[in-house]
Design a protein that fits this description.
With about 80 residues, the protein is α+β, with helices and mostly antiparallel strands. It contains 2 helices and 3 strands. It folds into 2 domains: about 35 residues; about 30 residues, no CATH class. It has a 3-stranded antiparallel sheet, with no helix packed on it.
Length: about 80
């Protein structure tokens, strides 16, 4: 729901503020639940097509990724 729809649906400032806070806290709760579920998840990335592989935690910026040593990748396709 966008802000224009909220303003039209809740013209009273008190009701609008109440609804905005409700939506904010609901979104914050969903984000917190997702972060808890994904806290141990890892993301593996290879910016060069598989020659090097990096790993980082879910939600972490790419600046925090670490090089994975000895990946021993399985080649599925002929080059």
């Amino acid at each position: 729901m966008n802000i224009e729809e909220l303003v039209k649906k809740y013209p009273n400032d008190f009701e609008l503020g109440s609804k905005v806070r409700e939506l904010y806290y609901k979104g914050r709760q969903l984000t917190d639940e997702l972060e808890e579920k994904m806290k141990d998840a890892k993301i593996f990335e290879s910016p060069d097509g598989g020659k090097t592989v990096y790993v980082r935690g879910w939600g972490q910026p790419t600046s925090e990724r670490k090089l994975v040593e000895n990946t021993n990748q399985l080649k599925l396709f002929n080059e």
